């Protein structure tokens, strides 16, 4: 039976996500930005929270964990390398581990760079990946606890997922990301089409998420640092992809 997903905006621009297995009622929240918002989403769907899948330790992804655990007795699964900075952790996971939500099995991918222990959850059969603040639609997270090389390798790991994988990220930043991406690749027709789509979605109050790996490969400048035309476009012909990535990231930080 296919997974059911419920996506909702909370705080200012965080995304909350519920992943539900209708065959047995299991439901996981991916991160817990805000307990009240997660509870409202559960109530709206009529789902019972069984698990929280934490991607990284930042407060805007973990603030709701303690209250939700107290209210629901749910299991909290978190990256081993950041477990000491996350409240209420029951199970720690690392690269290659599997997590089970009802009958759905997700694989843990370590994607350090935004934070040193950041992880993503990939549900291969359901064609879903929850990538936290590593990859955004047409963007990527700031490199706060790693090097450009660390982050680039993490993005390559996500880029290697199947093209039709639906990507759920931690924030709605797409409009600003598209604006920036057009400064890197103004002639990218797929990016220009995405820009128009994003304007339509945002102006009608709809999310730009999920995206797909295929869509990101053709529009996201951070996943395209090894495309010769992208390097040439920013004056870095023949530079190493990681140098191109670092340059694009530095420009975005100041954008
Ligand atoms: Zn973060």
In words, what does this structure look like?
Helices cover 35% and strands 24% of the residues. It is built from nine helices and 14 strands. The longest helix is centred in the C-terminal third of the chain and has 15 residues, at 189-203. The structure holds zinc ion (ZN). Zinc ion binds next to loops.
Biggest β-sheet, characterized? 6 strands, mixed
What oligomeric state do these chains adopt? Answer: single chain
Mean pLDDT: 97
Number of helical stretches of at least 4 residues = 9
Strand order of the largest sheet: 1-2-3-4-5-6
Shape: globular
Order of helices and strands: EEEHEHHEEEEEEEEHEHHEHHH
Q: Strand fraction band?
A: 15-25%
Radius of gyration: 18 Å
Low-confidence runs (pLDDT<50, min 5 residues)? none
In percent, how helical is the residue content? 25-40%
Distance between the termini: 44 Å
What is the structural class? alpha/beta
Q: List all distinct small molecules, including ions and cofactors, that are bound in this structure.
A: zinc ion
Total strands: the figure is: 14
């Amino acid at each position: 039976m296919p997974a059911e997903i419920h996506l909702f905006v909370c705080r200012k621009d965080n995304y909350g996500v519920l992943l539900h297995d209708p065959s047995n009622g299991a439901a996981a929240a991916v991160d817990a930005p805000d307990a009240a918002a997660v509870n409202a989403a559960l109530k709206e769907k009529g789902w019972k929270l069984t698990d929280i899948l934490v991607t990284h330790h930042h407060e805007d992804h973990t603030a709701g964990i303690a209250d939700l655990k107290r209210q629901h007795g749910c299991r909290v699964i978190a990256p081993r390398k950041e477990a000491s900075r996350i409240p209420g952790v029951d199970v720690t996971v690392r690269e290659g581990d599997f997590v089970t939500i009802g009958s759905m099995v997700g694989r843990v991918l370590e994607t350090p760079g935004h934070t040193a222990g950041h992880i993503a959850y990939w549900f291969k059969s359901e064609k879903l990946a929850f990538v936290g603040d590593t990859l955004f639609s047409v963007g990527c997270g700031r490199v706060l606890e790693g090097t450009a090389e660390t982050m680039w390798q993490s993005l390559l790991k996500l880029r290697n997922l199947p093209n039709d994988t639906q990507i759920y990220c931690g924030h709605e930043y797409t409009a600003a990301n598209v604006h920036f991406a057009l400064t890197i690749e103004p002639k990218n027709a797929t990016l220009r089409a995405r820009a128009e789509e994003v304007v339509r979605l945002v102006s009608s109050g709809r999310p730009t998420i999920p995206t797909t790996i295929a869509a990101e490969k053709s529009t996201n400048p951070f996943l395209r640092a090894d495309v010769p035309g992208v390097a040439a476009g920013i004056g870095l012909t023949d530079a190493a992809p990681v140098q191109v990535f670092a340059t694009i990231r530095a420009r975005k930080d100041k954008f």
